[in-house]
Amino acid sequence: MTALTVLEVGFAASTQDLGRPGFSEAGLGAAGAADRGSAALANRMVGNRPTAAVLEALLGSVVLRADGHVVAALTGAPGPVAVERADGRVHGAAIGEVLLLGPGDVLRVGLAESLLRTYLAVRGGLAVEPVLGSRSWDSLAGTGPSPVRAGDVLPVGVDADGWPLVDAVAPPLAPPSGGPVVLDVVAGPRDDWFRPDWRRTLTGQTWTTRPDSDRVGVRTTAPNALVRQRGGELPSEGVETGSLQVPPEGHPVLFLADHPVTGGYPVVGVLTAASVDRAAQLRPGDPLRFRLVG
């Protein structure tokens, strides 16, 4: 079987697919790719089915060697890319380009210049052993194939459904222009727990992504906090990806792929699917604004 051998991992990398929905009653979230749009695009570029597993790499920074003929594509956080051929030649490449690797070729993905997560798809998908029907690593539950490390061998599977139809595509997420990233939010379901001016507080200022953000959620801070008008706490209730949960200090936590299945803090709003993808690419210190829609 064709495989990729992992030579280097700079920060963190894991295999991800569409996740493992259906286990919430057991306290297990779905997990899956944090930026689903970028992961799905990478799979489409190489002719995979939507279920195929990809590699999600924090800030790029991975080096892999092909042990056979491999069709690959990179999306998400852009950075320098090069293919070192087995005969010693070096070819420059790019995010959003379909790459043809031969036996012994080395794919080098450098440090991402912007955004946070880079996705690598190979034709046929990464065929690591699934756990509960998914090849996704869930960092909160510690479930799924272990994070990828140097020395790992990633088998290439057969989860394809055609051949690549393009040579390259434009990135779905543009790098930040220097201004805040705008995230669309639908109000509710617990917005009545906050003072009537919560909309102005949420949308009328720039928030900052905190350094303790991760695949569980984007933690934010701003000069003005959301203030509750109710005392006490909610009984724990189900929460969805994109939920904007507000702890007592009033700075929202935006739930990403590895969020818990229940929470006891009120959810003031829920992000649209496209905005969840944008949020998954925020780096610590990045500014963001919320925009109410619907």
TrEMBL record:
Residues 25-294 form the Carboxyltransferase domain. It comes from the Bacteria. Pfam families: CT_A_B. GO terms for molecular function: hydrolase activity. Keywords: ATP-binding, Hydrolase, Nucleotide-binding. SUPFAM superfamilies: Cyclophilin-like. Signal peptide: none annotated. This is Allophanate hydrolase. It comes from Curtobacterium oceanosedimentum.
